[in-house]
Description:
alpha/beta; 5 strands
Amino acid sequence: MTWKKQLAILAKPYYWVNILLAISYLLAKKTQVICTRLFNVSEEDGICDLDSREVEILFFLLIVVMIRSRKTGSVTMINYLSSSFLYTKVANAILWAYSDFRYGLGFLLLCVLVGMVLPEPSYRGPEHITYFRNAQVFEEELARDKRTSWLICFYTVWNPTCVNFAPVFAELSAEYNTDHLKFGKIDIGRFPDVAQKYRISDSSFSRQLPSVVLFQQGKEVERRPCVDSKGKLQKFFFSSDNVRAGFGLNQLFKEAVERLPKETKKAQ
């Protein structure tokens, strides 16, 4: 994702309002006018700064955000911000309550209100996804044209991670779909035999949902999340950038376009 696109996303109210919430306590402490009114600091003293306990809380927050961002595989500024908003708001609630319980309660109510009014933006544009309603049709489609690569999302309708990934997958399908690079989805909650064949657990505690698998010439060549040499499932954060990199979508798209007739290439 380019910086220009990230800045355009940051201009949306969800992000700048949450950024203000994330720095609200620090901003209040560092702004003389706000500090003297909220924290009972006299203008003669002019001492508006963080005490040692508040500094400890902020340093602890910074460590938590760095660790969690690394574990979730955040690779862009937007990913970092999205994964850190929850922790920054919790830390700010603690800081406000540490100063005055009423401030902490008011901040929590404000966060709830913002969450209801400004949900996180998600892709709402067109998509080019084939939804397989039958396991047999799914297998036949994979084998029908060996020149076509399929990126298949195995999902369940009740899994929160699958629900959150749906707009990301839709946006990728709109960007990369061609006659020889197609996107599909199959609900393994409805077709457990498909889940069993491709070794995907659909239990409530499964860490394999969603699973995205790349098929070329009718055979699996790559999947996320994957299993390492020790048989341990490697965690994968399903952001658009991670999926692009994990499956090499730019290269796949280039190869798929090269296999198209000249007339179709011009339309692409």
